[in-house]
Structure formats: C-alpha cells, structure tokens
Amino acid sequence: MTTIYDIAKATGFSAPTISKALNGTGHLLEKTRKLILEKAQEMGYEPNSAARSLATKRTYLIGIIYDDPSMQRGFRHPLFARILNKFKESVENSGYDIIFLSCHTKLSYRAHAAFRSVEGIVIINGESVLHSELEELGKIGIPCVSTNGVIPGICTIIGDNVASGYKAAQYLVSKGHRKIGFLSAPGDDFIMSAQERYEGFCKYMRENGISVDPTYFEKCDSWRVESGKKGFEALYKRHPDMTAVFAVSDLFALGVMEYAEQHGIKIPEQLSIIGFDDDLIANYTSPRLTTFRQDADGIATLAADLLLEHIVGLPVPEKLIRLPTQFIERDSVISI
Questions:
Q1: How many C-beta atoms lie closer than 10 Å to residue 167's C-beta?
Q2: pTM value?
Q3: What are the contacts of 144-147 at 24+ separation with CB within 8 A?
Q4: Which residues are bridge partners to 156 per DSSP?
Q5: Bridge partners for 117 per DSSP
Q6: What are phi and psi of 292, to 5 degrees?
Q7: CB-count burial class (<10 Å; 0-12, 13-18, 19+) for 225
Q8: How far is residue 13's CA from residue 247's CA, in Å, rounded to a whole number?
Q9: Which end of the chain has a smaller Cβ tally under 10 Å, C or N?
Q10: How many CB atoms lie within 10 A of CB 128?
Q11: Which residues pair with 273 in a beta bridge?
C-alpha cells in the first residue's frame, strides 16, 4: 500500500507537505499541490481514515441532518438535493467525509453526533417539531451551519425570500394584474420561507399604493400538490375574478394547474401563475411555469466554507445570510 512517505520520496517533498496537499490544508503553491495529487493518483494512493484518526485524534467526519417530513420528497427535492450534492463535493475536496445523523432511533441528534464523533454539522433541512433539539446543537460547541431553518446560535444561509416575494408582486403588477391570489404554506419561527415571501409581496403592493386584501391569501396545510389544489379551490371560490396567483412552491402551482384544467380555467389567458423553486417539471408544464430558482450551489458552497472555517477555529457569524434568487420567466404569466 502506497503511503505518504512513498509519495514524499517520489516527489522530493517532505511528508508534512504531502499530508497538507492530500488533506487540502496549509498554504501550498497550487502547482505544488497539483503535482503531489497527480503523483498520488499515479501511485494508487488511498487514504487510510482509521490511521489518520488515530494519528490526529480527529475523525474528519461532518454530520448531515436532512429530514423532509412535510414534502416527503427526500433526495428528489429541487433545492435541498442540490445543496446536499454541492456541499458533499465541497467538503470531500477538503478531505472530509459525511455521515447522516438521525433522531428516529433512541439517540437524539446531539447524542448521535457525539456517538459518531463528528467535527461539524450541516442542517440541510430539519423537522420543525424538533426545533428545540436543533437549537441545542448551537449550545454544545459542535460547529454547525443551517441551510433552511433559522436556529438561534447557528449561522443560517438561505435564499432571499423577501426580495423574491417583492419581485413576484412587481412582475404581476407590471403585467396589469391587481386581483392576485397568494398560496402560502405552513411555517413558524423556524421555517419562515413562506411568510417571508408574503412579507415581500405585501411590501411591494403597499409601497405602490395597492391595497392588500387578506381574503386573497390562503395557507395550504402541507407542501404538496394536493394541498396546493385544495388551497387554490378555497381561494378561487372566494375570488373567481382573480387574474393571477403567486404560489410559494412549484408543487402548489401544479395543484393550481390541475384544478384549472378540471374546471375549464385557461392558463394563462384567464389565470396567470408564478411558482417557486424551479422544480424539474416547471420547464415541461403546459404552459411552462414562470418561477424562482434558488442559488443551491452558492448556499452549499458558503455553508461548507463557513463550517470548515468554524471547525478549524475561525469565527463564524451567528446570523442569517440571504443569497439572491433568480427569476425564471417562462409562459405562465401574460399581460391583461
């Protein structure tokens, strides 16, 4: 088995330099790091994580908390799956491995993290009902970041929901719409995305002298297509004259489209729709769905960078960081 000492002998660099290159640490010239990595690959080097842990007293393990009880889409989620993939790529390039942490056994997240000796934790998506347990993670000294739930004591990186809601209202109003429905979703002080989008939506309307009628607002009971359909049905029965609807999820938008098709409502001729998340199907609906795309790669990369900095002892802000979303204009909105 090839060791770092074999690579050191082959390249002429010291063993510590080889270790830094292989682990993505230290300050090395890029050409030096590249030469060492190429030689390691050529020689068939494979890292021995057990030996490394014994030598350094470190595990190089990062715990992943990823639960999806409300949508039940798992690794098919349009945002969280992309964040997970990019985060995994980023930390593995720095010499770390990932492991999923669960609270569905007899162990809590905190206990599971201690049992696995993880060096840091990223909360991709956590259960709101376990908010208090997630909040505990911010108090026990394990470096943590979150990419969805806003947890006291833990740095959170999310899309700019307020600005997105503002843009949705601005765009619909620019197309002549005034009677605009808003399909919201469950939320609380932990998961605030839906209410923040409504906050931004209302902000634009009020700034431009357009009254916000609360009866045009409907909160769906879960983040699913059927809930979007049911929510829109209630909304439409109150306001059959509305000309547009902003749904805080593409799944809700699909529910709206299904209801519209079943009841002879033409989209976008009679009803314009904006969704959120740029789900894979959004580009294949008829008409193609206008929506928002969150910066999954940016969220994941920043989360990885901040967590790795925290692990090595650098200060990380305990605050909410918002990244811009991208508005994707397709065919589901027209001017009236």
A1: 20
A2: 0.80
A3: 144/120, 144/307, 144/310, 145/120, 145/121, 145/303, 145/306, 145/307, 145/310, 145/316, 146/122, 147/80, 147/83, 147/87, 147/122, 147/123, 147/299, 147/300, 147/303
A4: 146, 320
A5: none
A6: -120, 140
A7: buried
A8: 58
A9: N
A10: 17
A11: 245
Sequence-separated (6 or more) residues with CB below 8 Å from residue 319: 155, 156
Residue in this structure with the two tokens 């376990």, named with its chain if needed: 130
- Give the residues of the chain that fall short of pLDDT 70: 24-26, 47-57, 68-75, 103-107, 127-130
Instruction: Tell me 281's DSSP state.
Output: G
What pLDDT is stored for residue 54 in this prediction?
Answer: 47
**Residue of 196, 174, 204 lying closest to 336 (CA atoms):** 174
- Dihedral angle over CA of 167, 172, 173, 174, nearest 10: 90
| Region for 35 from its dihedrals, namely left if φ exceeds 0, alpha if ψ lies in -120 to 50, beta otherwise | alpha
Q: Where are the beta strands (DSSP E) in the chain?
A: 61-66, 97-100, 120-125, 144-146, 155-159, 180-184, 217-219, 244-247, 272-274, 291-293, 320-323, 326-328
How many angstroms separate the first and last alpha carbons of the chain?
71
Measured distance CA(106)–CA(112) in Å, rounded: 9
Please write the tens of the pLDDT for every residue from 126-144.
Answer: 765 567 778 787 777 789 9
Amino acid at 270: Q
> Using the 8-state DSSP alphabet, how is residue 322 labeled?
E
Q: Which residue has the tokens 């699913």?
A: 224
- Euclidean distance between CA atoms 292 and 326, whole angstroms: 6
Of the candidates 241, 247, 184, the one whose C-alpha atom is nearest the C-alpha of residue 218 is 184
Give the separation between CA 83 and CA 90, rounded to whole angstroms. 10
Q: Which residue has the tokens 């470096």?
A: 143
Report DSSP state, residue 63: E
